[in-house]
Structure formats: C-alpha cells, structure tokens
Amino acid sequence: MPWIYLVHLKYPAFLQYFFIDQQFSRFSSDQFNNQQPWPFYLLCLMFSFLPWLFVSQFKFSKQALTQQLGQPIFILVVWWFISVTVFFSIPPSKLVGYILPATAPLAILIATMVDGVLENLVC
C-alpha cells in the first residue's frame, strides 16, 4: 500500500488508471488490444507444457492421479486450474501473463503423471 500512495501523490490519476482502467475496464470491455478467442489460454498452456506432455506419454487418468495425490488434493488442483483458466478466458482482451496462476496446478498434475510413467519404467 505505501507504494500505491506514493505513486498517487506524484500521479493523481494513477488510482483511476490502475484500478478502473487496467483492472475492471480491461476485463469488461472489448476496447483493449490483444483480443483473442476464448481457447487462447488453453492453447498457450498446451504448447508451454508440450514437452512434458510427451514425457508423461499423455497418460492422464483420474484414478492414477487420485491415488498419487489423494482425492481432496486432486479436486483442489483441478478446480484451481479450471477456475483460473475460465475466469481469465472470459474477457476478450487476453495477455499471456494472466494465465500464469494456472501453470502451477497444471505442473502438479503433469509432474504426478510423469512420476507415474518413470516409476513404471524403473520397475
């Protein structure tokens, strides 16, 4: 909060620009650049994790994930991924950095599957 106050002292229009224009208006209007279709973030995540998807051999099963993570953790991670991806896919203006909070749960799911694949290779 102190830095927001100091910036506001130097630039009185900062609060309007930062909170209203860049947060609410960017989410609710189509007047901003970087307009992308709704599956934009799914494609970004797929291409970002593509090498690991190949390592996991695309062996994603709910049963294997719930065995390794436990049912409550699995539900949390899936809900985390879906809610962040859907929320940021709603506005027409999309920036790639907005989807970063969805990379952690996806990394957990893929790491769990890679661990299962590697465990089967060793045994």
Describe this protein's structure:
By secondary structure, this protein is mostly helical. The chain folds into two domains: about 1-30, no CATH class; about 35-120, no CATH class. It contains seven helices and no strands. The chain has helices at about 1-10, 15-30, 40-50, 50-55, 60-70, 70-90, 105-120. Helix 5 packs across helix 7 and helix 6 packs across helix 7. The chain is elongated and about 65 Å long. The model has no long low-confidence stretch (mean pLDDT about 85).
> What's the overall geometry?
elongated
First-residue to last-residue Cα separation: 54 Å
Q: Main sheet? A: none
Element-by-element helix/strand order: HHHHHHH
Give the number of domains: 2
Give helix % range.
Answer: 55-70%
| Radius of gyration, taken over Cα atoms and rounded to an integer in Å | 19 Å
- Work out the number of β strands: 0
Residue-averaged pLDDT: 84
What is the helix tally?
Answer: 7
| Contiguous runs where pLDDT drops below 50 for at least 5 residues | none
Q: Specify the structural class.
A: mainly alpha
Q: Strand content of the residues, in percent?
A: under 5%
Key descriptive features of the protein:
single chain; 123 residues; mainly alpha; elongated
